[in-house]
Structure formats: C-alpha cells, structure tokens
Amino acid sequence: MMTTSFDEHSTTEDVLGTIDLAGKRVLVTGVSSGLGVETARALSAHGATVVGAARDIAKARRALDAAGATAVEVISLDLASLESVRACADGLVADGRLFDLVICNAGVMAAPFGHTADGFETQFGTNHLGHFVLVNRIAELIAPGGRLVNVASSGHRFSDVDLVDPGFEHTPYDPWAAYGRSKTANVLFSVEFDRRHKGRGVRAAAVHPGGIQTELARHMGDDALEGMIEQINVEQAAQGQPLFAWKTVPQGAATSVWAGVVAPADDVGGRYCENCHVSALIDDTGGMVREGVRAYALDPERAKALWAMSEEMVGERF
Q1: Which among 173, 179, 272, 296 is annotated as catalytic?
Q2: If you write DSSP's letter for every residue of 47-83 in order, what string do you get?
Q3: C-alpha span between 53 and 87 (Å, rounded)
Q4: Weakest-pLDDT range from 101-105, 262-266, 287-291
C-alpha cells in the first residue's frame, strides 16, 4: 500500500519527488497548453523520454519550450479526425519503440453542437472515440508493467453514456450532457481496457484533474463559468463544505502523474481517481458534489457495451 499520502494541494513535483524516470518512455496527448504541457514537462524533468501529441505542432512546440520542456518530441494528432489518429498510430507502430505510460489528456469541453471529420458528435468523437482508436491501435506498444491514464472529469456525473443515441440525432443537444457522456466514456474505456490487458501486466485508470483555468473552457463565456461556480458554492455551503477554489496547473496535472507512475498498479487499475487518491462511489442523486464517482461510470457491463458500440462506430475491432 501507499506510504505517502497526497491531496488536492499536491503538485506534480510533490508527487514525483525524487523519482528517477530515466529509461521510461511516455506518450502524452494534448501538449499544446495547460495540463498536457505541465504533465509532459514534469515527466521529462524527472528523466522520462516524452513524446507529446498535438493538433497544432508549432503551438505545442512554443508552449513546451516556454515551460522548459525542450526535450519533449512533438508528433501530429488531431483527435477529431480518424485519418489523423490512424496516421499517428501507424507512425508509432512503425517506429516500434515501447511506451511505459500513455496519458490521454487532450479534449474539448461544452462545445457547441457540431461534428468531427467522421461525422461523430464533437465531444464524444474527440474525447472518447479519437483516443479509443489511438490507444487500441498502439496497445501492444504499452510495455508489460505499463499503464494507460485517461483524463476524465467530475463532469462524468452530468450524464451516463447513451448507447442508443450517442450523437444526439434524436435527443435535444445539451453541451454539458454531451461533455458528461464523453467523460463517462473515458472512465468506462479505462475499466474495459484494464480488464482486457491486466493479464499481461498493463493497467488503466481514469483521473479527474480538478477545476483548473485552462483553454478547455474556451467555449464558455465568463458569465457561464461564474454561474457554474456560484451553483457549486451554494451546494457546498448547504453541505457544510468549503467553497470552490481553482487548482493551479501543476496541482491539476498531479493526479495524472500520480496514477501513472506513483500509485500501486493494483490500487488504481480500473478505477477513477482524483486529488491523488482513488475515489469513492457516490449515489446518483445530489448535485455537483466535491468528490466521488458515479456507479454507472465503473459498471463493467456498461464498459463492455460501450466498447462494442465504439468499435461499430469507428469500423474497427480491437
């Protein structure tokens, strides 16, 4: 069991401490801003060879260099295009070098209704299906003893996946419901990937980084953001809980790093983590509670069903 405890205030440096990651190879998606840049920086600073994937390579290079992560290699990946995803995966497979850790960090939040290049609803297509195809195509590159970390969100509590109408073709579109579906999908993908690969020593976990002010909120106006925080604080006060406070980016990236290289594999495999610990189950009532994971996001049968539907949607079997 873990001997050191961390919490919501812990940073990437707190978590990594004196750990030497020399000889370890890591893939991080979404390294053009925010959490992805800090995640890549921290792992690289501790000796890991880090490959960062981003849609805009020039932007990612500037952000990484500004953060002092000059050693991070950047490759092209647009999660909203399966052609791009497959090309990225094919390149990594052709290269043949193994990864000890894959962190699926990239994503979009509360986007207006739209579609990816392949016709999927934007958030489900980008946040879930893009990573689903990428990870499964490079699954054999994850070395025995390696891990997959999917960056999910407490937003999974907004909505379960919809296995009948994933693209809102027959349901009125709501950006937060769509975001919730995609984030629940991230957790369920971790559950099923973990089940399929733990026999060869590869484990998967989902993490919630916490509330951080990053480009993820680009589709939200300031009024909408303030309104959401106000609602959270009303509920927090009613429960006698402390008011909402933003995390710093190093605090937000800490749980990804903790789940990826610090926490015991058996503790985090197939689980949902936040604030550098494994989250407890919460019931499906109540509002935006501080911590916890909905049971539907960890349901193994739901995870299998989502996997099968995802294969149908992308036209590939894994």
Answers
A1: 179
A2: T-EEEEEES-HHHHHHHHHHTT-TT-EEEE--TT-HH
A3: 12
A4: 287-291
- What sign does the CA torsion over 279, 283, 286, 287 have? positive
CA 142 vs CA 149, 168, 258: distances in Å: 12, 34, 18
> Is the Cβ–Cβ distance between 127 and 182 less than 8 Å?
yes
Tokens describing residue 216: 């993820």
- For 228-238, write each residue's pLDDT tens digit: 667 766 776 77
Separation between Cα atoms, residue 182 and residue 152, nearest integer Å: 8
Residue type, 221: G
- Per-residue pLDDT of 1-32, as tens digits, reads 444 689 999 999 999 999 999 999 999 999 99
* Contact yes or no for 183/161 (Cβ under 8 A): no
Three-class SS of residue 99? strand
Sorted by where each starts, the structural domains of the chain and their CATH numbers stand as 12-218+248-310 (3.40.50.720)
Q: What is the pLDDT of residue 1?
A: 44
- 229 to 34, 242, 243, 282: CA distances (angstroms): 20, 13, 9, 21
pTM: 0.92
Q: Under 8 Å CB-to-CB from 304, ≥6 apart: which residues?
A: 192
Q: Is the pLDDT of residue 139 over 60?
A: yes
In the annotation, is 296 catalytic? no
Place of tokens 């990651």: 21
CA–CA gap between residue 266 and residue 204 (Å, rounded): 10
Q: Which helix (H) or strand (E) covers residue 136, if one does?
A: helix 131-137
Which amino acid is present at 267? D
The tokens describing 7, both together, are: 């919490």
DSSP 279: P
